[in-house]
Amino acid sequence: MTAENSDNNYDKLLGRFNDLDTTLSDEHYFVLYYGQYFQDSYKPSNSGNNLIKKMGRSVDEKSYLTFKDSLIATKRLYPFDLRALSMGSVLAHRFADNEFATKLDRQLIGILKSIFSTGDGKSLETALHVLNVSDEYVICDILNVSVTGQRTVKNCDFLTTENTHVFEKGIYFNIEKIFEGYAKLFGKKDNP
Predict the structure, then answer these.
(1) By the 8 A CB rule, do 171 and 145 touch?
(2) For 30, which of 54, 114, 129, 144 could close a Cys bridge (C-beta 3.0–4.6 Å)?
(3) 42: left (phi > 0), else alpha (psi -120 to 50), else beta?
(4) Within the chain, which residues score under 70 in pLDDT?
(5) How far apart are CA 132 and CA 181, in angstroms?
(6) pTM value?
């Protein structure tokens, strides 16, 4: 079987993901999320879909369909924007767009399961591996954890937190691939 015909062919999986295919497996989500690092389009500094963030703050029943159409139209530009997926899911549930909510939930949960398969975030050794700093804050929001500070410790971001019993003092996020992404972007061999 050639790579092009493989079930894990990145381009084919990305097409299915962008089409909101609900049959993607946990392995597919892992390949998609971490595979983005190997794509020319990977940008370690990507802050996500600002249009969707802005629109999502003021969506009401009349503007929901415009929001949904915009999310779908821009999804190919920001396929792994956890904030947009989360916001889209919340709004789809709020306005009883159950089919769309289910599709977004599957994607969000699939990506989160991939990230949480890399560790538990409780130490440097078991840090959650992320490919974008904004993913750290979305994960904290989803876990309902208040971030009170951030610092870099070796190859990790350490977010100090409150309102949590699971993460005693904070959550560790491994950011090695982000450093490597910047190095590739700027043609350096060492971490920035």
Answers:
(1) yes
(2) 114
(3) beta
(4) 1-3, 163-164, 188-192
(5) 10
(6) 0.89
